[in-house]
Specification:
This protein is of the alpha/beta class. 27% of the residues lie in helices and 18% in strands. It has helices spanning 2-13, 35-43, and strands at 23-27, 48-52, 66-69. It has a three-stranded parallel β-sheet with strand order 2-1-3, with no helix packed on it.
Length: 78
C-alpha cells in the first residue's frame, strides 16, 4: 500500500497543472473508497471524480489527465 501511495504521488507531481476533476478514480463500490488515495489527492490540492463500475462504459475518459483504478475485483473486466 505504501508503494502504491508513493507511485501515486510521483505521478501526480508530473502533472502540476491539473484542472478541475482531471483525475478519474474508478471503483467497484462508490461507497467504499480507499481513504489513503482520496486523502493523498486532496492533500496535493487535486480534484477527482469517483466513477463506479456501472458508469465505466458510458464515461469519456479522454477528458481526464489521470485515471486511478481501485484494487477491487470488477464483475466484468474488459
Amino acid at each position: 500500500m505504501k508503494r502504491l501511495m508513493l507511485i501515486l504521488l510521483a505521478v501526480m507531481l508530473l502533472f502540476p497543472l491539473v484542472a478541475s476533476e482531471d483525475i478519474a478514480y474508478v471503483v467497484k463500490n462508490t461507497n467504499a473508497l480507499d481513504s489513503g488515495i482520496t486523502n493523498s489527492i486532496n492533500e496535493l490540492n487535486y480534484t477527482y471524480k469517483v466513477i463506479g463500475e456501472s458508469q465505466v462504459l458510458s464515461t469519456n475518459f479522454s477528458k481526464y489527465k489521470m485515471i486511478i483504478v481501485g484494487e477491487d475485483v470488477f464483475s466484468n473486466p474488459l
